[in-house]
């Protein structure tokens, strides 16, 4: 029987720190932020939004609209994740640019960036189109990053014997992607898709009911329905909205996610078959459909074969392994000209941004520094609390398919409930306990980010080969040794993926957690999230820009000095071999 091991090795945590690539990407972001702010100044001063009904008869149509926005955002997220993760994993030169850019993108507090996006789009597009595009963009940014990190992590941890087999069989890029790389990443990708869809509901509310001063960008949908009910203190409408959302989640779980999870189980790496595989009644029904069988034989299979033939015909020369450097060649004149234009735009945007930031008084900078420290403490506390319970529960669900069939829909429903709709009700009660809103904000961050860790822990536990689990049982290892030698090393890459996205999500959630409205009252606590939320409501663009850049720099610094080093450790020492 082929042997497998989770590689361990001595050594320090060696990995990339802050680099010149990070600086260039951050300067590009600064230029884009400045361009958005300048466009925002040209947006109409007063924009009247639609009336959001809390009548039960409006719920079906609102549910359709929200589900359509979620679907559009997920399709974009999946395409982005596959293309971006593939490029970053397959090419070292591209990785030097793509990974810093991905770190920056996932660290941008989109709830603070949204005003710039919405206002700039309204300056160049009709209001209805601009608001819809902004909503889909916000949901996309809540779904894409963890899927991209998951696919990249899977691409970089493919076992060596599988890579060698692909080289022996001379699989060209498309065929290697279809029969090795995508199947190997399928389990983690599907679980992160479940998480992305659940997380999308959290940001849907912010996307569908958005105001900047006298500008009303609300959109009809479930998110705006729930938020309107929460602000008005209408508990009946709030319960009806949550029930409708729960029904949608259960239906999607049974018709989409549960069949996909059962289907991807066949891609699990192992030399023996696991005991209890996940099942799906809907997948069994589809497998007996003669219409789908006919489509598979006469449509999808011929198309796949044609794509394979085209990939073989277009391939030239020997099959290259992963991380092959492209042949060096001189850049074209067009590329040099484009780089010069971009550099000039970045330099101009950076100078103008600095001029805009100099308008802030010194007292605002001191408030931002104190708020940053307060929010950092809440983010750290929420991550530690999440790790305490998500790892054991994730292992329990991921290693017991029968239990997962019961608990997974429950977890998905709870994860999908928009915490920002429920939190104002909880916060009013928590304001009376010691710590007040400062402690309550940790709870909202935990409610919004713990699921990234849980679903990645489930995916990591589900991907452990059955033969390794059976070996630990035959050796009669104690539960401590089993966790030390198999479970935690196997989970390590998945937990790093979850921690990166959970950390970014916690910083993002601080904007909602530290400043909220309920029943016509406003509550706020010290934190950079509260400062950003206040600047958004008042239309204070210099303060909004300063808070956003400080948060981005902080999150990028943490990613590059901590999480990226742990990612390198996962690739080098905890790859399944």
Write the layout of secondary structure elements.
Layout: H1 20-41, H2 59-90, H3 92-107, H4 110-124, H5 127-156, H6 160-168, H7 173-208, E1 211-212, E2 215-216, H8 222-232, H9 235-264, H10 281-287, H11 290-314, H12 333-357, H13 362-399, H14 401-416, H15 419-430, H16 436-462, H17 466-474, H18 479-513, E3 515-518, E4 521-524, H19 528-538, H20 541-573
Antiparallel strand pairs: 1-2, 3-4
Brief descriptors of the model:
MetI-like fold, two-stranded antiparallel sheet, two-stranded antiparallel ribbon, 76% helix, 2% strand, disordered N terminus
Q: Can you offer a commentary on this structure?
A:
The protein has one domain: MetI-like fold (Orthogonal Bundle). The protein is an all-alpha fold and 577 residues long. The protein is 76% helix and 2% strand. The N terminus is likely disordered. The chain starts with 19 loop residues before the first helix and ends with a helix. The protein is globular and about 65 Å long. The chain has a two-stranded antiparallel sheet with strand order 1-2. A two-stranded antiparallel ribbon has the order 3-4.
Can you identify the CATH class? Answer: Mainly Alpha
Radius of gyration: 24 Å
N-to-C SSE series? HHHHHHHEEHHHHHHHHHHHEEHH
Total DSSP helices: 20
CATH architecture: Orthogonal Bundle
pLDDT < 50 runs, ≥5 residues: 1-16, 316-328
What do we call the CATH homologous superfamily? MetI-like
CATH fold title? MetI-like fold
Shape designation: globular
- Report the oligomer: single chain
Strand proportion: under 5%
| Tally of discrete structural domains | 1
| Overall number of strands | 4
Mean pLDDT: 76
Q: Give the strand order of the largest sheet, numbering strands 1, 2, ... along the chain.
A: 1-2
Main sheet properties: 2 strands, antiparallel
Tell me the distance between the termini.
Answer: 13 Å
Query: What structural category characterises the helix and strand content?
Result: mainly alpha
Helix proportion of residues, in percent? over 70%
